[in-house]
Amino acid sequence: MSMKVEEAVDLYLNWLKYGCGKSENTTINYAVDLCQFVDYLMSQGINDVGDIESAHVRAFLRDVVGFGYARTSAARKLSAIKGLTSFLKKRGLVESDVAARLKGPRLPKRLPRALPYEDVVKLIEKGPRGDKTLRDKAVLELLYGCGLRIAEASALKWEQVDLKERWIRVVGKGDKERIVPMGRYAVKALKDWKDSGESSDTYVFPGEKGGFITVRTLRRIVARCAKNAGLSGVTPHALRHSFATHMLERGANLRVLQELLGHESLMTTQRYLKVTAEQLKKSYIKAHPRAVFGGEDV
Questions:
Q1: pLDDT value, residue 275
Q2: Architecture of the domain whose range is 117-278
Q3: Considering the entire predicted model, what is its pTM?
């Protein structure tokens, strides 16, 4: 069955709004993206939906990115096109879904949000419960207090830990070693865990079947403790991100943080920089000569 591209888009948008129950804003956004796609197809001499090929969709996305659109915008436009081509295939208007197997541009990785320090305290103090309280508290103190990657924490051995000198020799990516200091809270938590007699002589966090604890189990520990503390969105990497963010907020040198996190490139460490509104306000009040009046904040 033959159908003009513009007619097919109108049919799809009507289905989104009335048949699928999408919001007006969603329908408008899809309309904008699909109209742009239709304009491109027309410029290529494509008027019928049966003539659309995967190559046309790929070329359109290349043009979008080349024109200066963000990759997130290109990914959204591909999503709109995929919705259209899937709709056409299900309605029998085309023989195949030409966009089904297409992948969008790689999006930049988003860092997890940093927890407020108050939430970190709540997590550590109220999260660990039951017969594994000492172990779980040691896990949390280590992930947040030292900024370890989850794989580094799971395979950590006691021979790498110096409780007296408060150092940990961490084996990171590519088997590269780095020395990370520990705060008194982390030291106490690890010492309490070691003195409990439930740890092994080799691994700080032994697994149930020998060897070291699995990464999956560590994730479950963090998730369970977060639930106990009434928090959401907390992961082992969120604790590492919180470690980095809180260090920077309190004046840590970026180069020092790079070494603590085990980053090869300073650019990787810079991704953790996030200026909060409160930081902006404090910096403004401290630095601007007319930011205060009579000793009070304006």
A1: 45
A2: Orthogonal Bundle (1.10)
A3: 0.58
